[in-house]
Amino acid sequence: MALMVGARVLARNLLRPWSRLPDAVPGRTGPAAGGGDGVRCFGSPRVLVETDPAKGVAVIKLKNPPVNSLSLEVLTEFVISLEKLENDKTFRGVIVTSDCPGIFSAGLDLTEMCGKSQAHYAEYWRAVQELWLRLYLSNLVVIAAINGVSPAGGCLISLTCDYRVLADNPKYSIGLNETLLGIVAPSWFKDTLVNTVGHRTAERALQLGLLFPPAEALRVGIVDQVVPEDQVHSAALSVMARWLAIPDHARQLTKNLMRKPTADRLVKQRDADIQYFLQFISRDSIQKSLRVYLDKLRQKKG
Ligand SMILES: CCC/C=C/C(=O)SCCNC(=O)CCNC(=O)[C@H](O)C(C)(C)COP(=O)([O-])OP(=O)([O-])OC[C@H]1O[C@@H](n2cnc3c(N)ncnc32)[C@H](O)[C@@H]1OP(=O)([O-])[O-]
Predict the structure, then answer these.
(1) Lesser CB count within 10 Å: N end or C end of the chain?
(2) Rounded to an integer, what distance in angstroms lies between the CA atom of residue 294 and that of residue 296?
């Protein structure tokens, strides 16, 4: 399935063995988050993977400064890393977190959706679909260690996980804020939120583009746990141990039972969903909204 993602980027990468990817950090061994001996690292500069084979757990760290926006390259590298972990029987769980201080992910990369060609939009959207499907249906236990602000696509990644731990910092809000940009969260973003917080909470959150600070996020159930900032990783590891205590086959079949109907809705109409996105994103009014929003972000600094 990964071959369908970001075809241009993947074709370039998949022609080489993983360890010889130009950007790869092959087999570095040493202390890392989660620490201790035997932690091995691979991945790319934008998607770091630290593995602890003895525990059967890996940590995927997004590292696309300044804001971990989900560019085509990040999406593609994320899918490749996940696929590699899934194909290695050593690993049963993965923690998804950020290497950018204070920012889990700013969501989809707005520059990928603004002023580009139709072919680019189609390639980008297929990559977004692919990451969602991969994460949502992953056989691994996937836990989000949310160590920063997490709007829109950043929230979506968290929602695909089996469990979400959020750092208790009032700046770290989380939610699907698309309407604030003048755009609309696609149906499968909406489904993922509804499956997590229920219909009424999702409806209100989506229409108002709510970004929930930690206490509120916990109250509505968009995250499962809020912990002091320096304990996000250890809390994620504790939760992981609990989930890994369940026999894999029973847990995996149950996850599939819960999630496959939602995923199938997209799988059955992926091309139509891309066409819908193309029509939507190409509208003059939408392009204008995105440009205005990007300009505001840029001016904020000046
Ligand atoms: C149908 C589609 C569904 C859509 C789903 C989505 O996910 S839509 C996404 C919805 N996402 C949002 O609404 C979140 C928008 N972002 C934010 O609210 C803030 O950036 C922040 C709170 C994440 C970080 O605040 P901070 O003060 O630490 O950082 P800062 O604000 O100073 O930005 C630094 C640089 O990053 C740039 N840049 C930022 N975001 C994006 C992006 N997504 N992409 C690309 N670039 C982005 C920003 O322009 C600036 O560039 P410059 O001037 O250096 O060239």
Answers:
(1) C
(2) 5
pTM: 0.91
Residue 271's pLDDT band (cuts 50, 70, 90): very high
- Condensed to tens digits (0 to 9), the pLDDT of residues 115-144 reads 999 999 999 999 999 999 999 999 999 999
Can you tell me which atom of ligand 1 is nearest the CA of 186? Answer: 1
As a whole number of Å, the end-to-end CA separation of the chain is 43
List domains and CATH numbers for the chain. Answer: 40-300 (3.90.226.10)
289 vs 19: CA distance, rounded Å = 42
107 ligand 1 Cβ < 6 A: yes
CA angle 241, 247, 252 (to 5 degrees): 95
What is the chain's Cα-based Rg?
18
Cα 69 to averaged position of ligand 1 atoms, centre (Å): 7
At CA 224, angle to CA 221 and CA 225, rounded to 5?
A: 125
- Residue range 220-235: mean pLDDT, rounded: 98
DSSP string across 163-204: EEEEE--TT--EE--GGGGT----HHHHHHHHHHH-HHHHHH
CA–centroid distance, 284 to ligand 1, in Å, is: 21
Separation between Cα atoms, residue 141 and residue 156, nearest integer Å: 17
